[in-house]
């Protein structure tokens, strides 16, 4: 309480200072900040939904039009872009570090174990960036583009929408180590998952809710093979796998080889953003170990949410929106002296 009180107090002081300075210097143009500045900024992160209201009002429209085309060509793209936002945010915060290619200065996160041969959507982000650079040069950051693409992909898949705080600058560094250490592996236990989310300020509720992103998209055999053939080092399948589901997975994912064969994360409705992911978990048909342990991992709170979401899609949508906003505000770079707005999402501006 003390912290936020102090914070509000200083915010008020700053606002007062602003109003006064504007009153005394009437020629001072505050228009670019938006009418409510700084009241509408998120109290902790400085992001706000109206960030591009005057500098690039058409930003979201451009994002959506590129997404529509990309998803029409490849329905899985919506899932890939949603995942990209997660993998951006849990490494150094939502700073578009995930988009940087290898260079003299950068060791790309794209080669981290969870990302290599797996993370997709970079070309779509490039296309969006290109169009945005034409419409509003050097204005919309690559981290905001990822966040807008994740929301747009959710909406275009039939899921909820939310007011999206914007104004992230992007980093000039990447962290391969951070990607390997912070992105949860698919064979995580519930304790691992809770711990890895907690590192990012995300709680058990966020874990149950954001895992619902797996209502769209696919996983490769290599990521669920352990469950089929050697779950506990005893050469036996995971006993929580429903039997006919097990047999169908066995056909896609043989004991040896076939590592890149894919299977839907939500077999009941793989391209629709709905609550069937949770119904599948209740039917013991969650694909990854990290999906099934939300129910079987003996965390009563998380398991309770899985059941609630399976029953009540509106509740899931409401919580998902809130948790996405929260995840999207992990450690953003804001302010004039932090980060930059890249011209090309794959490299930092002063690289040569
Ligand atoms: C809770 C911990 C999580 C784990 C252990 C996990 C793990 C995975 C794995 C292993 C894959 C398949 C990758 C491959 O086989 O190439 C995957 C795919 C995916 N993940 Fe997660 N994930 C987690 C959380 C999330 C979150 C929070 C989101 C978004 C809100 C998300 C969205 C997705 C999507 C949409 C896909 C499908 C991507 C595609 O088809 O291209 N995941 N995840
Ligand atoms: C998860 O898989 C990795 C290999 O990919 C293995 O080293 C690790 O022991 C597994 N963890 C669990 C909890 O089974």
TrEMBL record:
Amino-acid positions noted as binding Ca(2+) 2 in the UniProt annotation, renumbered to this chain: 215, 266, 274
InterPro entries, per the entry: Haem_peroxidase, Haem_peroxidase_sf, Peroxidase_pln, Peroxidases_AS, Peroxidases_heam-ligand_BS, Secretory_peroxidase
Major location (coarse): secreted
Residues that coordinate or bind heme b: 214
Cofactor mode of binding and number, as noted: Binds 1 heme b (iron(II)-protoporphyrin IX) group per subunit. Binds 2 calcium ions per subunit.
Enzyme class, spelled out: oxidoreductase
Binding site for substrate: 184
Localization annotation: Secreted
Family of this protein: Belongs to the peroxidase family. Classical plant (class III) peroxidase subfamily. Belongs to the peroxidase family. Ascorbate peroxidase subfamily.
Protein name per UniProt: Peroxidase
Classification lineage: Eukaryota, Viridiplantae, Streptophyta, Embryophyta, Tracheophyta
């Amino acid at each position: 309480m003390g912290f936020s009180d102090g914070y509000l107090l200083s915010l008020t002081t700053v606002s007062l200072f602003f109003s006064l300075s504007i009153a005394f210097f009437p020629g001072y143009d505050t228009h670019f900040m938006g009418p409510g500045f700084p009241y509408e900024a998120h109290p902790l992160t400085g992001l706000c939904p109206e960030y591009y209201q005057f500098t690039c009002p058409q930003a979201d429209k451009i994002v959506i039009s590129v997404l529509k085309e990309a998803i029409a060509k490849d329905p899985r793209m919506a899932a890939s872009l949603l995942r990209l936002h997660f993998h951006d945010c849990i490494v150094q915060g939502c700073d578009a570090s995930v988009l940087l290619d290898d260079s003299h200065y950068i060791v790309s996160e794209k080669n981290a174990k969870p990302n290599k041969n797996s993370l997709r959507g970079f070309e779509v982000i490039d296309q969006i960036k290109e169009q945005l650079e034409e419409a509003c040069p050097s204005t919309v950051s690559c981290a905001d583009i990822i966040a807008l693409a994740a929301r747009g992909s959710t909406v275009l898949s039939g899921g909820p929408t939310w007011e999206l705080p914007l104004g992230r600058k992007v980093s000039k560094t990447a962290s391969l180590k951070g990607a390997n250490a912070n992105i949860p592996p698919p064979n995580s236990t519930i304790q691992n998952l809770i711990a890895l989310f907690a590192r990012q300020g995300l709680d058990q509720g966020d874990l149950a809710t954001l895992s619902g992103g797996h209502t769209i998209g696919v996983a490769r055999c290599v990521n669920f093979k352990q469950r089929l053939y050697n779950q506990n080092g005893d050469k036996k399948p995971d006993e929580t796998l429903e039997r006919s589901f097990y047999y169908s997975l066995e056909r896609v994912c043989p004991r040896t080889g076939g590592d890149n064969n894919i299977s839907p994360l939500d077999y009941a409705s793989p391209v629709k953003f709905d609550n069937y992911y949770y119904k599948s978990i209740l039917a013991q048909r969650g694909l990854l170990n990290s999906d099934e342990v939300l129910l079987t991992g003996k965390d009563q709170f998380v398991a309770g949410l899985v059941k609630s979401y399976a029953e009540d899609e509106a509740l899931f949508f409401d919580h998902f929106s809130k948790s996405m906003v929260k995840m999207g505000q992990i450690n953003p770079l804001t302010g004039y002296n932090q980060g930059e707005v890249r011209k090309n999402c794959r490299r930092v501006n002063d690289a040569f």
